[in-house]
Amino acid sequence: MTRSLWKAKAQKTNYPALENDITVDVAIVGGGITGITSAYLLAKEGKKVAVLESHELAGGTTGDSTGNLYKMVDKRLHHIQSKWDEKTARAVAESRGAAVDLIENIAKEFDIKCGFKKVPWYLFSETNKKDETIEQEVATAKDYGINVEELHELPIPVKVSTAIKVEGQAQFNPAAFVRGLAEKISSENCQIYENSNVHHIEKGENLVLSTPKGKVTAQKVILATHSPKGIYGVQTAIYPFREYAVAAKLRSGDYPDGIYWDTEATFHTSMRAYKNDTGNYMLVLGGHHKVGQEDDYERFFKKLEEQARKYFDVAEIEYKWSAQHYKPADGLPYIGESSDDGIYYATGFSTDGLTYGVLAAMIFRDELSGRENKWADLYKAGRFTPIKSAKNYIKENINVAKQYLKDLPGKAEAERFSEVGIGEGKVVEVDDEKWAVYKDETGQVHCHSAVCTHMDCIVDWNDAEKSWDCPCHGSRFEATGDVIEGPAFSPLDKRDVKSRKNS
Ligand code: FES
User: Fold this and answer.
1) What is the pLDDT of residue 143?
2) DSSP state at residue 96
3) Together in a domain, 388 and 338
4) In angstroms, rounded to a whole number, what is the distance separating the alpha carbons of residues 353 and 360?
5) What does the alpha-carbon distance between residue 314 and residue 253 come to, in Å, rounded to a whole number?
6) Ligand 1 atom nearest to CA at 227
7) Cα separation of 293 and 274, whole Å?
8) With CB atoms 3.0 to 4.6 Å apart as the test, which of 246, 346, 361, 475 could cross-link to 304 if both were Cys?
């Protein structure tokens, strides 16, 4: 079973589910770093706010992330500069730096026990072939006044040919930060609800959000849900991927804090040290694939464990988990109002979501308070930049079209329920319909339609997370059908196992 170190080490939460109808200025869907920081900043501006989280606070991507905060971006600043221009890359570094500063100030102001600390960021190459990436990043960073030190060894036991170091980046426990901040801001004017899944948003003079037991009427809505809930054009310009992490408890070795990134293109990993009163850990993160388009999900954990054991004296892999991110077509996130309907979203963060999530909250605060934000135009939600997006846009949307073609009759993985093993899920062809069939540990069979409730793609079984994942826009569902994340509002439709002959 997967479990993130951050969620395990953070304080537990116990917010009520929404059980009546309320009216607020701003309803925020999603209680991760984007949602809770937005709630904090908007409540500070005098807005009445409600946060509606479908599971637990920081229970999604925030709690499954790296816990790293940095000005750089996962694609490197020099890529932003070559795709856009120097002014844009400079603004990206500046805006991300402001977001990291805000996190630091909030953690200090509220004395949030999230282990926030300033650490160096390293980029290294183990082979001479990749030195070009480092050289370009050195040149770009220096142009923007980011102090870069060139090295030939690291403070962790990884042999490198070249490396660079940038001081003043940061790390924390993101789940502890979000839950700690929520505790400080929860009040009559900033209401927080857990287990309150929004399954419908009615647009009109006001926006009305429905949860199972209560409704929220709001003037504005922020979809702090990664990909926005529902159907939006931006979903053709963000591409869902999963990434993996292991936390290796060390038998020996005590390494300095830092964010360590390698430049290996095929299995790019990042590492970071973590320690607490139970011991020293190294976190190894990496490996990525399109959501719902993988045959062997467990192989990523195996590879990360191999990497950890190659470099460190590992006693055991205590935690392993995976997380979702959305790559934007033109390299920058989409943040702001979707059209003129009062619904705002923030998405396409790639693997840089903790920093971009807080930046999004800063932009929302200004936009919803009628103030100018100097970065709002750069990240504007409705932008479409054909030249900068074209290559990724065409490639990824052909990929989505192929997923629909796979839905043709005769493409199921099994024809009988007996072909599904214990603890396993398979797509089974039943009377010309595709069913998502899961057999739990007790042998009970759970049947649902395999048709994703977002836009009708066929879901795929994820054997690492025991979930049904949609290959088109990244919706994910529990083995028992409920929505975990992604743009789908509704669970997979239930099917009755007893009435079927192939059982
Ligand atoms: Fe869009 Fe499934 S997420 S069709």
Assistant:
1) 76
2) H
3) yes
4) 10
5) 9
6) 3
7) 32
8) 246
- Only one residue has tokens 């990206």, namely 92
Q: What dihedral do alpha carbons 201, 322, 12, 171 form, nearest 10°? A: -110
> Are 162 and 309 contained in the same domain?
yes
Which bin fits 486, alpha (ψ -120 to 50), beta or left (φ > 0)? left
Please say if the pLDDT value at position 255 is more than 70: yes
Q: How far is CA 449 from the centre of its chain?
A: 26
- Claim to verify: residue 427 and residue 474 sit in the same structural domain: yes
Residue in 290, 452, 489, 492 to alter for ligand 1 test, most ligand atoms within 8 A of Cβ: 452
Tokens of 79: 């890529």
- 104: phi > 0 → left, psi -120 to 50 → alpha, else beta; which? alpha
> Looking at the structure, do residues 156 and 258 belong to the same domain, yes or no?
yes
Give residue 234 CA to ligand 1 midpoint distance, Å. Answer: 13
Alpha-carbon 41 to chain mean position: 21
User: Which residues' Cβ are closer than 6 Å to ligand 1?
Assistant: 452, 454-457, 470, 472-475, 486-488
pLDDT digits (tens, 9 = 90+) for 405-461: 655 555 678 778 888 999 999 999 888 889 999 999 999 999 999 999 999 999 999
* Number of Cβ atoms within 10 Å of the Cβ of 413: 16
pTM for the predicted model, two decimal places: 0.92
Residue 95 domain flag: no
